[in-house]
Specification:
With 299 residues, this protein is α+β, with helices and mostly antiparallel strands. It has ten helices and twelve strands. It has a ten-stranded mixed β-sheet with strand order 7-6-3-4-5-10-1-2-9-8, with helices on both faces. Strands 11-12 form a two-stranded antiparallel sheet. The longest helix is centred in the N-terminal third of the chain and has 20 residues.
Length: 299
């Protein structure tokens, strides 16, 4: 499952650009969670910004980012966890509360992502590092629930980073046709003229999913959305993979945390337990004997 993420520099290294084709991983997520087209569009945008953050925001291999989106729309919570496998490979896993939501298209023919996520709620980004004990928390109210606008606000408010961000998923009932995004970060020495060049270039560009559907390369897309024909490649062959780190041990700790009383109830009522990982749907079975052993250690 290969996706493509490339980092570029534009305007004489004064503008950092990242472009991503995340078609494969978004299709994989659609299949894992059996998503409707509406939820695929919403979750695919979240997955795409997460894939780019894996290669933009993470410095150490032990860094970990959790994104929580909770809007007042029918989708409910979306949780994405991002980690690094190595410097070229990010790992993401994702959970969505209501994967089967389907809304009518908006009058402009687009999928109503904002309506599905909800126009009110919050976006929370938690960055942790278990080794250095680093911990950062950036919480903002949702702007529109359309995801790209919400993350643009997050980068501006919580990270003081002026950012142009686009995310797009082209999906029909057969699956994901194209998914991708780009992030543009002007450095402080960027001139007003260069900034307005970029703004105009973005305004005149087609949506990212359409450009990918026309089989434009990420390099061609980077040139189009910056308005700079002399961009240089800073890093390529970056990828992202869907990978869950759940284990029997972790699930067992989860059962343990239910407490003695709750575990006793499960033993009396069912005599066994099947626990499912929300991120990958893997099932873990616990027998009566195993539950009794866990109960002995519970408080
Ligand atoms: Zn899992």
């Amino acid at each position: 499952m290969q996706n493509k993420i490339i980092k570029f520099l534009a305007y004489d290294k004064k503008v950092a650009v990242m472009c991503a084709d995340t078609t494969n991983i978004v299709e994989e997520i659609r299949k894992i969670h059996d998503l409707t087209p509406t939820v695929t569009a919403a979750v695919g945008r979240v997955a795409t910004v997460g894939a780019m953050m894996a290669h933009l925001e993470m410095k150490e291999l032990t860094d970990n980012i959790t994104i929580q989106i909770k809007g007042n729309g029918p989708i409910g919570s979306i949780v994405e966890n991002i980690s690094l496998e190595n410097s070229k490979q990010g790992n993401i896993r994702l959970y969505v509360e209501n994967p089967h939501v389907e809304l009518p298209l908006k009058t402009n023919g687009k999928i109503d992502v904002g309506g599905a996520v909800g126009h009110q709620g919050y976006l929370n980004v938690i960055k942790q590092n278990e080794v250095t004990n680093g911990n950062y928390n950036g919480l903002i109210p949702l702007v529109s629930g359309e995801i790209a606008e919400d993350f643009t606000e997050f980068f501006a408010k919580s990270e003081q980073k002026p950012t142009a961000l686009a995310l797009g998923v082209l999906v029909n009932k057969d699956g994901v046709k194209k998914a991708g995004g780009y992030i543009i970060n002007p450095m402080p020495d960027c001139t007003d003229e260069e900034i307005s060049n970029i703004e105009n270039a973005i305004k005149n560009a087609k949506p990212i999913s359409e450009m990918l559907d026309q089989n434009l390369s990420l390099e061609e897309i980077a040139k189009i959305v910056t308005g700079d024909k002399n961009i240089e490649i800073l890093e390529q062959d970056l990828d992202v993979m869907y990978k869950c780190n759940c284990s029997r041990d972790r699930i067992e700790r989860g059962i343990l945390s239910l407490g003695k009383e709750e575990i006793t109830k499960i033993i009396e009522e069912d005599g066994k337990l099947e626990a499912k990982c929300h991120f990958c749907n893997k099932k873990y079975q616990f027998s009566l004997e195993e539950l009794q052993k866990i109960k002995e250690n519970a408080k």
